[in-house]
Fold this protein.
Amino acid sequence: MRRIIESKSGVSNEVLIILIGSIHGNEKEGVKAIERTFKRLNSGSFEINGKVIGIAGNLKAIQEQKRFIDHDLNRCWTDEHIQKCLSNTGKLVNEDKELVELYHLINEVISEDYQQKYVIDLHTTSADNGNFLVYPGKVDDSTIAKQLGLPMITNLDDYLEGTTLLKYYSSDDVVSFAFEGGQIGSAKAIDIHAEGIWQLLQLSGIIPLTDQPKPLIDPSENLPSLLRVIYRHGVKINDGFKMNEGFESFQSVQKGEPLATDKNGSICAPVDGRIFMPLYQSAGDDGFFIVEEI
């Protein structure tokens, strides 16, 4: 697996889109969707009004089919940690080496002269119904991500232990968000990512709007368009955490409802809301979140 999956550009400097897949190595659906996107771009005579580049995240973890090797590559994007890695390049664990390479590459691309710049981080989840966007910036009607019609979570980074790549690169000059395509290992997640990427290419103006966009989620689900996190249940490696079966993101839960167990017994919902990203894999320190509509 190469770091740069592919890149395609035209003479215009209107739009730059950076697509990042598999920053968690077991989430390969994003990389496959990026590959499909470039295959589609290369099969037609599209005029590219800017540049789109696809980047693979955690190369060694992809090879070993693990979320990460030494630590989570999507929880370490702070100025302090980055500078520490840059000044100690000979004594780095795997994810810190990956971070240094990604940092140099993304910064080099972002420094290019484009009028609009987007960093889109592609993910999948261990639970079903994981189609949503994590958006750290202000959401209004002009936000192109909103036009995908997916639920948007506005404050997830405030509840995570560590700083994500999308949070690090979000600024006045760069629109950055995470696009969750569905369940890890599912063909449906690749389809949703690929269709969503294509819609974003059209909405941003990189390619012309030539076809009617397909809904990325079933409209009959009637999911809220904008939500915020109100609770996170964190887990440690020796907690013995196990999510109760059958939960999926955005399912309504009530205060006191049993959601999971650990070495201390049953874990119940502390508030009413909707469960979000319940953990159904061994790796990860976020047991579940509870969100509410804004």
Q: What stands out?
A: The chain has two domains: 4-219, 227-293. The first helix runs from residue 29 to 43. The longest strand covers residues 116-125. Helices lie at 29-43, 59-64, 79-87, 94-110, 165-169, 187-204.
